[in-house]
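[audit] Reproducing an earlier prediction to check determinism. Same input, same settings, fresh worker. If the tokens differ from the archived copy the diff job will pick it up downstream; this log only records the rerun itself.
[audit] input (308 residues):
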Amino acid sequence: MTKTQPKPEFFDLNDSDNSCFLCNNPRYYKTIKIDHFDFPFEYKTCKCGMVKQTPMPNEKFFEWFFNSDVFFSAKKTDKDFIWGYYDYFKDESSRMATSAYRHRRLKYIFEGTDRPLNVMKIGPATGTFLYLAKKKGHNVLGCDVSNQFANYAMENYDVPIDIGRFERKGYKDGQFDVIMLLNVIENVPNLDEFMQAIVRTLSPNGHFVFNYVDMHNNLIAKLQGKKYFIYRPPICYVIDRFTVAKMMKKYGFKIKRQHWDVRYMHLEKISTLLHWKWLLTLSKALGISRVNFPIYAYPSKVVVAVKA
């Protein structure tokens, strides 16, 4: 296996068990040690329910990670355990189908408005969701740390993406009517600073839309244990429905709706995420490894919250 050892400066070595952004009263009592990647790391659980990686990856880590082959193509790096995607840009049809489905589920936000909405999507990937929102007449903008995503979105969909961390970009107070982040919230090293920036830049009664992998009674996580895909280097926090409810209350949001998150995926992606090599081999032999179909992914949930 190709070794890709992250540099020590990619982690906050001053991070300790003396902090918990959710409860401000850290009482860590459980440790999960992960040692099947290129380097060992741990997840620690606070009594309030929040689970964090320690030491915490810092901003330099994500600038490196989301611009590297480790994220875009495990196929190229020949890794046994995937940190990001098997072959990212081959999955564009899956992303477009997923964005179209999500847009239909959220049409009560985007359709029937008396004016175009100002929509921000943090971590917009290749810009497929923003592209669909733009076609409906809305003003769209993305923010991502990846130059590759920004270039792809502009070249293929004419969707603008600012490069950098959302919480550091200096957007105006109340600038956005909708702020979305999908498959992002677990990847933010400083969630307190991040959430404060969302609260500040979202308009009164604006919509905050995000998804998360619900670890509560998660059967797949129980079956896979330490090898469950959520326990990997870019995941800063592991959350569930109870910690999500606490987060929304802390930052002044009222949860309006929740629904199961559906994503269009194929067996090549599923089998590599779950480390089921037998399924990848079998599906390729049958010629069905790249067939897209909708599944309740991971499983995760979409939350629609309103700024109180």
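[audit] rerun output stored. Observation attached for the diff report: Residues 8-307 form a domain with the Rossmann fold fold (CATH 3.40.50.150).
[audit] end
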